[in-house]
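Entry:
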Amino acid sequence: MFDKVLIANRGEIALRILRACKELGIGTVAVHSTADADAMHVRLADESVCIGPPEASKSYLNIGSILSACEISGADAVHPGYGFLAENARFADILQAHNIRFIGPSGEHIRLMGDKIAAKQTADRLGLPVVPGSGDGVETVEDARRVAADIGYPVLIKATAGGGGRGMKVAQSADGLEEAYRTARAEARAAFGNDQVYLEKFLGKPRHIEIQVMGDGQGGGVHLFERDCSLQRRHQKVFEEALSPALNPQQREAIGERVAHAVRELGYSGAGTIEFLYEDGEFYFIEMNTRIQVEHPVTEAITGIDLINEQIRVASGARLSFDQSDIEITGHAIECRINAEHPETFIPSPGRIDPYHPPGGLGIRVDSGVYAGYSIPPYYDSLIGKLIVHARTRTECLMRLRRALSEYVIGGINTTIPLFQALLDEPDIANGNYDIHWLEHYFERRNA
């Protein structure tokens, strides 16, 4: 096991990793920008190192500064959390070259799955169902027209190095293809420094269903069932639940086993998520995230397995501490991402929190690094924390969530709590009858 882990992140995920390390008896090093000097994980860590000014490019994305912090502190491993450098293959390679363990998959696997075309080709080879599409980069508008005519409109044009909805455009017909193609390439170039795009069949009303996986790189690989992440705004998830209300036990077992088999065949090590679009009873692979996800707590709630703990164990060279037969489903869980944003305009709302009172009681978990008197800085994403509720059934879970939201007090700034309270009044949410476009249509109706 490691002696000391450096946490290369901030906010609630940094605190979550710190807690797992402490429960394993591992020393902790918190790195932080000058804007995060008063962060909770910095206060609780055994050691802390300031790595730069508020700008992420000069601190949390500064590989040289993080490497120096490892050398200063003597950390023998780094946990990247999610975002920032979590899926940076070069970072993983550099740490390995300095005999520092990256708590995550190999740089090779990060690189493979970070290329959307290579990931899709790999998924196809491993027996996972994929969305019909170009299968490779599309270099010209003429090539795009040929592919689109073959798979049929509408088509989705996506950046090969994309994520978060950037470099992604829909062409409903041949008339709109050229503009969508050129716009997607321009966005991809600006966001990722790589303007290569590919085409996929656009699905009309799919759900976004992802399967949590864990491998040990030594022949062990399991799935931990699915999460339904279909409630999204601008391709960003806002509400996640496990299990999906759209799947039956037979579908769940079938796709889970295919995914677990793929993880074993790949020789994957660490936590990951294999993501699908699901429509009319069919799954279509879209990507694999080679890191822990924001929404991992709902999986922990229904399985009782500490995913961060297992990440650390596997990275230290241990085999998985459980087999597929050991993983059982208990109840239902839902997570709401509470952001420092206006609940209607979504304008960021940084500032000082006062008062602050998180909800409590049976089945309530709040993952957050804020406290009364803490100031949300304006330099990073607006996530305040995650409210996770767990109950025996989905209906009980929704009732518990309603109660928890009514107890949650975050004063001094705007938050998205009122949005979730409004969503719980919607019959489609109560019935689990929603897809990836539902939330955007909801906003359109509300603002009409």
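The domain at 132-201 is CATH 3.30.1490.20 (Dna Ligase; domain 1).
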